[in-house]
């Protein structure tokens, strides 16, 4: 801060159009997500080759429990950061923006410390409930991560709030997985087994937080340097608590499959399902890349319905357009990829991958990227209602089907819940604000996927080698899909504006296709 109390120049933010901002920051986030996915698969590949499926399943069970209770510790407050801070910054209220950070940090640190203590006290009972004695030690060690995860999530939301996703990418998608991969591999090679997997997880979080704090201090100085203007905690909690319960439900939803499988089946099945789920979850890479920047952009324009509608339609078309060819590839080549990337024993998860892939396409195409449309519009209670509905459907369907058809039943439960939740969000946005994602250009994108799927199916049916399928399938699908987009003239002026932010070459390709 300068002597006259002014804000340092480095904290000013560019006055881009919303489309350009989404394109630029979204492409940065996508690059980070891609790196994260690569490291994520590398970590799983290392673990599955150095420990048994039962040990890996035990680790997944322990982290599922930690992530579930950690949602209580957050109280949804990271969501308040990227909702209130962008509004204060747009009004040049930097002191109030700092006040949001201070209030959120203080509340989260206290609540997370309490939750970590409760985990330590209840570790014995949890291990007994799952009949896994080794789970107790894993929970004791992982309880340390609860306050660290609170800080970690707060930092990620901070970078979203100031529209500087590259630092979020560095922290979440590069530093954490790199450190985790190296540490996990080293500890497993030294023979530490489950403790090595847990240790790599812990070290990755701690190092990522340290790097995130340094980057935030250097690139958003006002958070540390301006005078704090105290903000009332009630509006923060009023907005975040419904999202906290939604987050608790959503985290529980993300882990319920493992709980149900672990209860009815063996821990080995948990590890196998986790690998299949991870493969299908890659389809959310584009939605997850745009979500962190989409929410603050919607929050800024939440009273301007035409602007909200335009942003919603543009981002939906891009998310759907980028997700569809990847979904076709993953669904058709599930067995090949599970066999090649992991080991043949994981191919039993192929049916689950296909089911989850279809649901993820619907989820990515409705409700805004990563489900952030209603959050950005301020409808936190609706988000809670939708998430509760999602949980109820998943629990009922999974409990009914897992004892009968195994891990495929868990996939059906998750897919049913994701589909209903996505459609509900889209219908609610239309009912309350009159916005919807449907356009003629979106129809062209969807129709272009049909021939791509047909040619891809031809590859799978005629080629026997999993390795050849794994290499050839994406080439055929993406080429046919791109040709169909060209033939249907699916690109618009907005697409050209987005493309120029990603790559001049992409802009030239779109301009050429529109001639």
Structure description:
The chain is mainly α. Helices cover 82% and strands 0% of the residues. It is built from 22 helices and no strands. Helix 10 runs antiparallel to helix 18. It is globular and about 65 Å long.
What's the helix and strand layout?
Blueprint: H1 18-50, H2 53-74, H3 77-90, H4 94-129, H5 134-142, H6 145-161, H7 165-189, H8 194-219, H9 222-225, H10 233-264, H11 267-281, H12 285-300, H13 305-332, H14 334-341, H15 350-365, H16 373-377, H17 380-405, H18 407-433, H19 440-462, H20 466-487, H21 493-502, H22 504-513
The main sheet comes to: none
Helix content percent band: over 70%
Q: Kindly report the oligomeric state of this protein.
A: single chain
Distance between the termini: 52 Å
What's the β-strand tally? 0
From N to C, what is the helix and strand string?
Answer: HHHHHHHHHHHHHHHHHHHHHH
Strand content: under 5%
- Given as residue ranges, the uncertain stretches (5+ residues, pLDDT < 50) are 1-16, 503-507
Q: What's the overall average pLDDT, rounded?
A: 79
Q: SS-based structural class?
A: mainly alpha
Query: What is the overall shape?
Result: globular
- Tally of contiguous helical segments: 22
Q: Taking Cα atoms only, what radius of gyration do you get, to the nearest Å?
A: 23 Å
